[in-house]
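Read as chain and fold; for instance:
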Amino acid sequence: MATFARAVVDGLDGLVVKDGKTHRAYVVALDSDTVEVLRRHRDASRERAALCGVSLGDRGFVFSFDPDGARPWRPDTVTHRFSRPRQQVGLPEVRLHDIRHYVATRLLAGGVPISTVAGRLGHARASTTLNVYSHFVPATDRVAADLLASLLTSAARSEPAPGG
């Protein structure tokens, strides 16, 4: 599980760490591969800190250029780092934020409940997710129709014929 409780934003006097838009932390499950990548990153960060004669504090930022994790990356750091691999795979127009939309639509198309998708996106209400992604929900309407048809067909087969 991963907890997201803070956001880093550009303020008038530099970077500011504050509560997120909804002023609440949210928790999402992580797959074992992602947990392992993050564990290796943390271990490497601790080794780098030790080589520099400092320690990586428990409240240090996971992504920081400082050996002790004192300051977070600027909010646009990942966006800038995303541009090289994006170009290499031939997707020059894709923005990093587009991946968020891709993930949400794939989860919805895969039948993940809207409340779960909303939680992963950090939306306080499922209605927010529906407002943004409702045009992707009807794609599952065919699945619903087929399921209902199979239920009705199965029920019709098990009932005695009228008048019989």
User: Anything to note?
Assistant: The helical segments are 32-51, 77-88, 96-109, 114-121, 126-133, 141-158. Residues 95-158 form one domain. The mean pLDDT is 86.
